Structure formats: structure tokens, C-alpha cells
Amino acid sequence: MNNQKPRQKESYYDKLRPEHFKELSARPPEDVALRSLAAYHPETGFSLSLAGRDYLVNPWDGQVVALPENQPVPFLVGLVAVMYLLHADYKKVTGRLVTAQELKGGTQFFVGPHALSTQGLVRKYGHRSEEFRQAGLDLGGKPVPYGDAAVEIPALPKVPLTYILYTADEEFEARMVIGFDASVEDHLPLDVIWGLVELVSGYLEHGNEYQWNLGIKK
Q1: Could you tell me the residue range of the domain that residue 169 belongs to?
Q2: Is residue 151 a part of any domain in this protein?
Q3: CA distance 178 to 99
Q4: In DSSP terms, which residues pair with 154 in a beta bridge?
Q5: 101 and 82 share a domain?
Q6: Are 64 and 8 within 8 A, CB to CB?
């Protein structure tokens, strides 16, 4: 991780292609808000919550900022927020959990460098289920009855993520399973699902200090 404070010209605005903002700005804003459940503000754009944090996406100025300070955000936060506003569907959350491998194309995609980020969580919480549960609650999550400890985190308005911890014992090593609502592929492409998990897993492991690459990815 680069600890140097990024200059504006090095932020994700140069990485997230301008056509993404252009496409979003061309959409009827009321429709974008209806599909995504984001709030539309005619003068400033769309506000939405991502893993317990509030952001404002201004497609006309090509900016994403963290609220209430209006601070620039890391690359991955901006990418996930804009892609969600572009792709979110009218469909509602189903309440049916699936794994990444059950998503269309998931078996081929979520492997190797795109394997879902759980190793750090297992190392930190493999014997500490109550601390894991509290970390999930701190992100606005709620306990759910799976495994030895589980939390459902409202990662995006229509995209809950369910983290299920199986703690280590004398026979089995600890493991973490991530469950998705069956509707997730209606709202995000696979690569953005991966990015969202990277963010949420980072927040669970490191708390508010986590900043994915400080907005710089070279």
C-alpha cells in the first residue's frame, strides 16, 4: 500500500473511464434512482450507502466523493458506486442465498487472482467469532443464523453480502463463506461483485483505516 497522499490527477478519476460518467449522465435520473434505490439530488447527483459509508456520485462533473466531508474516494469505491448505478435492475432482493460459484460464469471467474478475499478474515477471526460479529455490526450489518457466527451486511442498497464464519476446532480449520442474494447478478457484473467483496472484506478486517490502494492503482 502506498502511504503517499494521492494528488487529484493521480486519483481514480483518471482510471474510471469518462464514458462511464457520460453514460450515467445520459440516463433519466429518476429511473436510475428507482432501479438502484439511491437518492437523486437534482443539483449534485446521486447519494447512496456502500458498506455503511455514504457517497455522492455526480455524473455531470465526473466525481465521486465521501459524505459529509466531500473527500475524493479510492478507485475501487468510485468504480463500484458508478457501476452499481449503471447496472442496478428493477428486481428486488430475493432473500435466497447463493455462493459465487452458483452465479452465471462464477465458477470460471472467481478463481486465482479473482478468488474472493477471505484469507485475512480467517486469520484474524478464526478463533474470535464475537469480534467478527461486532465488526459486521459496525458496518451496519445484522446477525443471521448461519455457521458459528454470521452477519448480513448491506453492501449496497440492493446488494447484501452475508459473511459466514466457521471457527477452528480440533478437527477442522477455520473458514469463511460469502453468500450473495440470488439477485446480485442482476445488479452488478462479476468483476464489480469481486471489487465490492474486496472493499467489504477490507473494512471487516481493518476497520475505518482501510483504504483500497489510496485511489492509486498503477
Answers
A1: 97-207
A2: yes
A3: 7
A4: 160
A5: no
A6: no
Q: Is residue 152 part of a domain?
A: yes
Q: Specify whether the CB–CB gap between 6 and 59 falls below 8 A.
A: no
Residue of 216 and 133 predicted with greater confidence: 133
Average pLDDT value for residue range 92-117: 94
Element (H, E) at 181: strand 175-181
Gap between the Cα atoms of 138 and 204, Å rounded: 9
pTM: 0.88
- Percentage of residues of the chain with pLDDT beyond 90: 79
Q: How far apart are CA 168 and CA 64, in angstroms?
A: 40
**Contact, 215 vs 73, CB < 8 A?**
yes
Strand partners, 156: 159
Cell numbers representing residue 177 in the block: 463463506
Task: Show Cβ contacts of residue 101 under 8 Å, excluding neighbours closer than 6 positions.
Answer: 107, 110
Cβ neighbours of residue 211 closer than 8 Å, sequence gap 6 or more:
1, 74
